[in-house]
């Protein structure tokens, strides 16, 4: 698990100047667990430094993704969420009925990944988005489940 110091060193190694604003962003990332949005990072940083621009947060998170420190995914209609790459890969099952978000081990998707490669010659990044549908509880409440 990288510390804020590790993150600063990675950016410096790739030629990025370490500004006080970037240092605060890196501290927020180092403290984060699970998913975090640009807006959440910006709110955390703005507590200590209200002048930090959300654009600076976007650029810094994008750079951390380019360096392999973060990855992002889009979860059904929500803004991009970032997570650290030292956390295990997973997918999401998002219920359109109740909004429940359940993590799914990506190994479950290996047969789909293989079939897409075999049938279409397509190498899919199945950890990048979410599956939407109805959870068991919402299905039980509806006579005929309909997925939107």
- Output the CATH homologous superfamily of the largest domain: Winged helix-like DNA-binding domain superfamily/Winged helix DNA-binding domain
- Fill in the CATH topology of the largest domain: Arc Repressor Mutant, subunit A
Instruction: From the alpha carbons, calculate the radius of gyration and give it in angstroms.
Output: 18 Å
Q: Helix content range of the residues, please?
A: 40-55%
Structural class by SSE content: alpha+beta
Largest sheet: 3 strands, antiparallel
Number of domains: 2
Shape: globular
DSSP, total strands: 6
Number of helices in the DSSP assignment? 6
Which architecture of the largest domain does the CATH hierarchy give at level 2? Orthogonal Bundle
Strand residues, percent: 15-25%
What is the level 1 CATH name of the largest domain?
Mainly Alpha
* Main β-sheet, spatial strand arrangement: 1-3-2
Helix-strand topology string: HHEHHEEEEHEH
Low-confidence stretches: none
Distance between the termini: 38 Å
Q: Residue-averaged pLDDT, rounded?
A: 86
In words, what does this structure look like?
The protein is of the alpha+beta class. It has 2 domains: 81 residues, Winged helix-like DNA-binding domain superfamily/Winged helix DNA-binding domain (Arc Repressor Mutant, subunit A); 52 residues, Dna Ligase, domain 1 (2-Layer Sandwich). It is 43% helix and 17% strand. The protein contains 6 helices and 6 strands. The strands form 2 sheets. The protein has a 3-stranded antiparallel β-sheet with strand order 1-3-2. It has a 3-stranded mixed β-sheet with strand order 5-4-6, with no helix packed on it. α2 packs across α3, α2 packs across α4 and α3 crosses α4. It is globular and about 55 Å long. The chain starts with a helix and ends in a 7-residue tail after the last helix.
């Amino acid at each position: 698990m990288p510390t804020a110091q590790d993150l600063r060193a990675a950016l410096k190694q790739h030629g990025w100047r370490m500004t006080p604003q970037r240092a605060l962003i890196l501290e927020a990332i180092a403290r984060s667990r699970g998913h975090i949005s640009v807006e959440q990072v910006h709110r955390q940083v703005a507590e200590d430094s209200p002048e930090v621009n959300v654009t600076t947060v976007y650029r810094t998170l994008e750079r951390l993704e380019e360096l392999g420190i973060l990855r992002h995914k889009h979860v059904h209609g929500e803004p991009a969420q970032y997570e650290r790459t030292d956390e295990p890969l997973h997918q999401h099952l998002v219920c359109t009925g109740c909004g429940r978000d359940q993590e799914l081990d990506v190994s479950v998707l290996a047969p789909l990944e293989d079939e897409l490669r075999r049938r279409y010659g397509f190498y899919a990044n199945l950890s990048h988005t979410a599956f939407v549908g109805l959870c068991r509880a919402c299905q039980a409440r509806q006579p005929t489940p309909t997925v939107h």
